[in-house]
Amino acid sequence: MTSCHDCRSSLIAYVHHELSADRRREIARHLDRCPECYAAYVEERDLAQDLIQIVPRLGEAGAPQFEQVWRALQSQPALDSPAGEVLYPARYGLAALLLILALLFPWSLSRGEIMLAAPPTQPSPVTQTITATPSVARATVMAVALHQTPKAAPHSVPLLSATSTP
Amino acid sequence: MTQPPETDALIAGCLKGDEASFAALYDRFAPSIYRLCYSLLMNHQDAEDVTQEAFVYAFRNLWRYDAARSAFKTWLYTIALSRCRNAYRRWHLPQLNVLQLLTADIAAPRSEMPESSLARADVKAALEQALSALSPCLREAVTLRYGLGLTYREIAEVVGCPQKTAESRIRLAHERLRKLLQPAGQSLLDEWVKVFD
């Protein structure tokens, strides 16, 4: 069952014979029953008929002469040819290469920054057991402390109490 | 795509560089291309320029045309339409005031309308004003449908939109035109038809 809204939305296509046979039958059946939609159909049909007569007459005369077009054509470089198509893969290849370079360039820069920003390697902790007297042990700890970087200092702290004997 | 075999023969001749084929192809399609351009631009000089530009482009790129994809006329209309759109952007066509249309002299009663070239010019001007009052996309749809007799599918192909959109643009154009013409009554259209007949 076609509603009035449905019918109105298809009226112009109906007037232009642009509907399928089934849809056209549905609309025609509705128009037979509904006087309002039929009045709308008559209005659309009349407007379409008027436009069919009038619009094609706009700009009826006045196309430029062929000679003008031919002169313009001749004044430009030689006609393009299918050979031009050969250039397309090369253009695409060049574009792809530029794209890859554009992507890699920031990456290579940031890689250098990563290397610069890497933390300094810490010295390996001293693992040898000190079995000397307290004075020797104190001297050894001081010597070790002098040779270690400030960051590595915490690793040497347990050394004081670990192995020295009174 | 089905199209007259003569068109295919002319295209083949053009691809071989035969000037007579170019001329014949031009003569066959130039009037409709010019009408399309004129209906969209509403100016003889602009329409002439765009027609020439469209044909020069089409002839230079004829080898790109693929008969399996579209009819030659559709391909040409697409080229011309895109150039007309460039022209709208370049020249910023002034939108005519709807009031101008409503106050046009064309609404004179039929009995007073002289069957003269002056009256014909007035009618034509009034119609141009009515079409100019439409937005460019509605004007394109009306011109392609009524000026060139394209189907909705062909309109969609030329304009580059779905078929349903082409259909709704025609519907909207009808609505707008009816609203524009309503104050003047049906007599306005009757006068147009009579003067053109």
The helix content of chain B, as a percent range, equals over 70%
Low-confidence stretches of chain A: 82-86, 152-166
Q: What is the total tally of β strands of chain A? A: 0
Structural domains of chain B: how many: 2
What's the order of the H and E elements of chain A? HHHHHHH
What is the molecular shape of chain B? globular
Protein architecture, described:
The complex is a heterodimer of chains A (166) and B (197). By secondary structure, chain A is mostly helical. Among the domains of chain A are: 4-57, Arc Repressor Mutant, subunit A (Orthogonal Bundle); 126-166, no CATH class. Chain A has helices spanning 4-15, 21-33, 35-54, 66-75, 87-117, 134-147, 153-162. The radius of gyration of chain A is 46 Å and the shape is elongated. In chain A, 13% of the residues are buried. Mean pLDDT of chain A is 73; it is low at 82-86 and 152-166. With 197 residues, chain B is mainly alpha-helical. Chain B has 2 domains: 1-93, Rna Polymerase Sigma Factor, Chain: A, CATH 1.10.1740; 95-197, Winged helix-like DNA-binding domain superfamily/Winged helix DNA-binding domain (Arc Repressor Mutant, subunit A), CATH 1.10.10. Chain B has helices spanning 5-15, 19-41, 44-60, 72-91, 98-102, 117-132, 136-147, 152-159, 163-181, 186-196. The longest helix of chain B is centred in the N-terminal third of the chain and has 23 residues, at 19-41. The model of chain B is unreliable at 101-114 (pLDDT under 50). Chain A binds chain B through residues 9, 12-13, 16, 18, 43-44, 46-48, 50-60, 62-64, 66, 68-70, 72-73, 76, 79-82, and chain B through 17, 19, 22-23, 26-27, 30-31, 33-39, 44, 47-48, 51-52, 55-56, 59-63, 124, 127-128, 131, 142-143, 145-149, 151-152, 167, 170-171, 174, 177-178, 186, 189, 192-193, 196-197.
